[in-house]
Amino acid sequence: MSPTTAPERSREPTADRTETKPVLEISDFSVVYGDEVKAVDHVSLSLAPGETVGLAGESGSGKSTLALGMCRLLRPPAVITSGSVIYRGSRVTPEGVDLMTQSSRDLRKLRWREISLVFQSAMNALNPVLRVRDQLGDVLDAHLKLSREERHDRLDYLLDIVGIPRDRLRSYPHELSGGMRQRVMIAMALAVDPEVVVMDEPTTALDVVVQREILAQIVELQSKLHFAVLFITHDLSLLLEIADRIAVMYAGKLVELGNSNAIHNQPAHPYTQGLLASFPSVHGARKELAGIPGTPPDLKALPPGCPFVPRCRFAIDACAGIDMGLRAVPGSEPNHVTACPFVTNESAKTNAGVAPAVAAAATSRRRA
Amino acid sequence: MSTRPQLEAIGTPPPATAGDAEVIPAAAARGPLVLEARALTKDFKLSEGLRRTVLSAVRGVSFGLYRSAVVALVGESGSGKSTVARMLAGQERPTAGQILLDGNDVQPYQHSQFRQYKGSVQMIFQDPFASLNSVHTVAYALRRPVILHQRAKNREEIHAELVRLCERVRLTPAEQFLAKYPHELSGGQRQRVAIARALAARPRVLLADEPVSMLDVSIRLEVLDLIDELRSQFELAVLYVTHDIASARYFADDTLVMYAGELVERGPSEDVTQQPAHPYTQLLVASAPDPDDLASELRPLTAGVRRAGSALSTTVGCRFAPRCPLAEDRCRAQSPPLLRVNAQRAAACWRLDVAAPDLLHQGFEEKEEAITT
């Protein structure tokens, strides 16, 4: 959802947002597993205050590695090889802090308080031998100094905002349904008012109806509490609905970034186009579905240049030599960028995607 | 409404609903009936300490699988859709009900009939990481069904068949894939091996239990396309079990919707997804993300209605009633049977006149036409 089509959801119009400094700024971030697997390769991404940015990609695209890496939660053999992650919340100095240079003690203060995480599998993320009350209470105790009453009220409040009856504070995780566990995770992530919440596939394991309820809850809470969300999922159709901007990752690289409606109406990168054409929709007229041929990339043996070449319908020889830097999509909004250099003004405008552009490029090459 | 349409019950209420007797499935247009489930019921006995309870996972489910046609079974987790597939595969013994293969009553769970039945009915599973033995090669996984079901004897014959199978599921070059171990394959490739293994028995029915939900979005469509291609090539009757109603729309001739162990709606996929009749199907369709509706407000659809525990132990009334916005006293007292909506569709709801008034009138117009002509 773009801020322009949904004014009720964003606190400030887009213009203001671009002027305000991003609350989180990831620049040139790279993570390597061992020596050869570049899981995240020079990714830059920022989050404005209160904004929802969707990060789409399939398994192995590096989206979860990026999320864990920016919170410095990765363990060896993962090594962060480059980049900075500047956090500029209202509770830290205006120039911000670089998460990459913090001591582990300072980091502990920042996690949950400033940046919190919601994981996919709440059953694994919650401690099975602790009651909901104790798990939520731990977060409060670690970051806030509350009196007994305040603590008690805060716990009740947290369950209220995620729509769980208060008597569930006494429950153990196994006594809750999957949807409820996920709500507890969300309550925990919001326990001490963070300004950035990273959600890593928070609803993937849930049924569609429950998924819908939880997404609605997240959107509602966000409009109330004004935190920024980095929403990670493989489900692009879901992101189109809830995110302000969408970033698409493939093989550790960012291949496209833009407002949700731009991604929907003028997808520029062939991979994004492929993704959009490959999920069936229950709504609207039947469309022609076309999958993406080939298999997901092997990160140990990536081709030179664009990693999508083996599966790309429009691949030409020149693709092996391109620089995967992001460039503006001609004819689209100024913040819509893609790594594919063969998108022309005409192709983007006519919404025909990259096809004619590459065809033209191929002919011109042949002529040359 | 003065001319309140009369609802016509199909058969008697569960667990003895006759399914196909009155509704003509779209799948029937493709070919003759191959496998039929009649009032399949499965109870699981649970013991919680000293308390014994019965969980009725499936209640009175009836439908048919037709040659060259795909029937989708849609429902959320715990709705009993996989249990139905497992009963049809002979892995679970039904508590009540019949399974008919070519019109003959069979007991596939019985040892004496199991292998012969498996020669006709094969299943593929959700998780290709778990369904293949990780210490054996692809060739090993495929060799056993080839020997058992095709009675292939000599080495060359078997090998030629293995190569053919790999090529059929587009694992080429076949020689290379046959020598590989599951961990050397991607998820999509593993699922192809599982499909090849099912094909090795030369079945007429393929039961696919969530065949693509563990796979990446970009390769799901390819695997579904492959199954569809094999369906037409080998005239397979396919049961496609899924939680994703959108994929059922594109992939299946008929869609059956299950809720809490019961069929709540059935009909041609396009009709069921575009004009759902049962309130649960309506909720399911409305919950699916709509990428074209960029201005949607994402309001919770079941405002105020929380899931009232498990419906699987309730025996009285409609199992969806605790979540249903239209529920009235009758719904809580009496379980609705599948009621005919039109010639091809049925839904188990007492309040169809409110839930889907347009549909009902269409159905009646059709009927009147049929009477006048």
Provide a short characterization of the protein structure.
Chain A has helices spanning 14-19, 63-70, 104-110, 122-125, 132-143, 148-161, 178-189, 208-225, 236-242, 260-265, 270-278, 345-349, 355-367; strands spanning 24-33, 37-47, 52-56, 78-87, 97-98, 115-118, 196-200, 228-233, 245-250, 253-259, 327-328, 337-338.
Task: Name some characteristics of this structure.
heterodimer; A: 368 residues; alpha/beta; Rossmann fold; 13 helices; 19% strand; globular; disordered C terminus; B: 373 residues; eight-stranded mixed sheet; 12 strands; 34% helix
Describe what you observe in this structure:
The complex is a heterodimer of chains A (368) and B (373). With 368 residues, chain A is of the alpha/beta class. Chain A has helices at residues 14-19, 63-70, 104-110, 122-125, 132-143, 148-161, 178-189, 208-225, 236-242, 260-265, 270-278, 345-349, 355-367; strands spanning 24-33, 37-47, 52-56, 78-87, 97-98, 115-118, 196-200, 228-233, 245-250, 253-259, 327-328, 337-338. Chain A has two domains: 1-114 and 196-296, Rossmann fold (3-Layer(aba) Sandwich), CATH 3.40.50.300; 123-193, no CATH class. Residues 1-18 and 348-368 of chain A have low confidence and may be disordered. With 373 residues, chain B is an alpha/beta fold. Chain B is built from 13 helices and twelve strands. Chain B has helices spanning 81-88, 111-118, 138-150, 155-168, 174-178, 187-199, 217-234, 245-251, 269-274, 279-287, 329-333, 352-355, 357-372; strands at 33-48, 51-66, 70-74, 96-101, 104-106, 121-124, 205-209, 237-242, 254-259, 262-268, 339-342, 345-347. In chain B, strands 6-7-8-3-9-10-12-11 form an eight-stranded mixed β-sheet, sandwiched between helices. A four-stranded antiparallel β-sheet of chain B has the order 2-1-4-5. In chain B, strand 7, helix 7 (217-234) and strand 8 form a beta-alpha-beta unit. Residues 1-21 and 299-310 of chain B have low confidence and may be disordered. At the A-B interface, helix 8, helix 9, helix 10 and helix 11 of A face helix 7, helix 8 and helix 10 of B.
